[in-house]
């Protein structure tokens, strides 16, 4: 398996995987045009983050997005892992673990202060995977207000 930086030619696949992930995890239907523009916007403005794509035998099998959050308390960036998707036939095959290891390595090289992600409260399998990778549950709840 190789992990590579996503390219503009991956935008359609990444958008499709994001739509599938939203449906699988939250039963949300995303607007495909808005989603595609949102994925493309990451390539247009690198300050927003970057996508990684996992390939096995030359075929893409998963992706994730990394975004940044400045921490004034730590004088450094947290890297947020978001929009994780692994193709159904590649699940439970180490795809996410390999992508996570790649992100951790890149983050260390870049001087990031830590990695963060959020997970659905009901997704116990993902939570177990994150704990096995050395992540700890935070003491914070997440709130939002859509504008």
From TrEMBL:
<dbReference type="InterPro" id="IPR050832">
    <property type="entry name" value="Bact_Acetyltransf"/>
</dbReference>
<dbReference type="InterPro" id="IPR016181">
    <property type="entry name" value="Acyl_CoA_acyltransferase"/>
</dbReference>
<dbReference type="Pfam" id="PF00583">
    <property type="entry name" value="Acetyltransf_1"/>
</dbReference>
<feature type="domain" description="N-acetyltransferase">
    <location>
        <begin position="1"/>
        <end position="147"/>
    </location>
</feature>
<dbReference type="InterPro" id="IPR000182">
    <property type="entry name" value="GNAT_dom"/>
</dbReference>
<dbReference type="GO" id="GO:0016747">
    <property type="term" value="F:acyltransferase activity, transferring groups other than amino-acyl groups"/>
</dbReference>
<keyword id="KW-0808">Transferase</keyword>
<keyword id="KW-0012">Acyltransferase</keyword>
<protein>
    <submittedName>
        <fullName>GNAT family N-acetyltransferase</fullName>
    </submittedName>
</protein>
């Amino acid at each position: 398996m190789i992990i590579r930086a996503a390219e503009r030619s991956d935008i359609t696949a990444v958008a499709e995987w994001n739509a599938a992930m939203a449906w699988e995890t939250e039963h949300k239907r995303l607007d495909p045009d808005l989603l595609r523009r949102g994925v493309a916007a990451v390539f247009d403005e690198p300050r927003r983050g970057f996508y990684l794509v996992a390939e096995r035998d030359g075929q893409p099998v998963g992706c994730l997005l990394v975004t940044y959050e400045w921490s004034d308390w730590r004088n450094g960036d947290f890297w947020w892992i978001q929009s994780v998707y692994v193709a159904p036939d590649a699940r439970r095959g180490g795809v996410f673990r390999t992508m996570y290891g790649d992100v951790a390595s890149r983050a260390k090289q870049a001087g990031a202060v830590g990695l963060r992600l959020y997970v659905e409260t009901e997704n116990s399998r993902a939570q177990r995977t994150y704990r096995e990778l050395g992540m700890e549950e935070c003491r914070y709840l997440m709130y939002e207000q859509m504008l």
